[in-house]
Write a structure and sequence with these properties.
The chain has 322 residues and is an all-alpha fold. It has a domain of 204 residues. It contains 13 helices and 2 strands. It has a two-stranded antiparallel ribbon with strand order 1-2. The chain is globular.
Amino acid sequence: MEEQKKKLHVSGRILTLSVTIVVCVAVMSFLKPETFFTVSNLGSSLTTVTFNLILACGMTVVLMLGCVDLSVGPIVAFTSVVVAKLLQGGAPIVPAILAGLLIGSGIGALNGTLVGYGGLAPFVATLGTQSVFRGLSYVLTSGYSVTGLPEGFSKIGQGTLWGISNLILIAALVAAVLALLVPRLAFFKRVYLVGTSRSVAFMSGINSNLILIAGYTLSGFLAGLSGILMASRYAMGNAGFAVGYETQAIAAAVIGGAVMAGGEGSILGTVLGVLLVAVVNNSFIQFGGNAEWQTAISGIMLVFTLFIDVMRTRKAKRKGLI
């Protein structure tokens, strides 16, 4: 019964988001026909949000566990710096990329270990690693960008295939794979169960700590991937990359149906959440707003969505539905 309610909630959120996005695009196309609904604007907007989409997919899994990952932004920056340093020093492209993915996964595993076996609150653990790896990024670069990267590496983030940005294709592939796997793999069913109740998961023979480590490792892996793509896109590693991206990732996942308490969430909902935030941000810019407001807008949308979810839960409790 509880599982059915969650599915209905997710389905309802997906339908609501889909309609909202269509309405917003239609209104903006009417109000700004010469600048909004154009190939250049839509292509640029989609390319920009690819980093957020990849991070938000990982964040969705962490939120499903009833946790949060505040370190994804610094992981992006740290990975971009390390990979750029390796390439600048003459390392081959493929090994450098693999090193970046390994670093992201390792930091994620560290977060999961601190939360699972260390007993630290997710907020505290990842806030700590957030500071550590952002700081290390600045230590490694002394505040300067790491440039002089091979052209072959830059083509990954700057190139196109069939006229579509490689970044869009990679992000779409990541989202599609996770959207297919999350409802089907036994691992993700364990993730839902751990997020719903660790005690129930324990009685079911599930090692919650290992699931936590695996979930955080996936988030770190995707953050590392995002850092590699960002370094490729801008042809440099930079300690200032992805500042505030954790807020945008959390906002997209929560808007898409994930709940901070855990046990709920869907990749499709997260994709729609990312698109809705992107449409709102782009609309704001279309009317002369400053692009620096993007993180603030994401925060506002996050707070509003959380408020609506709290009201929905209270109403359901009054009716005896939960």
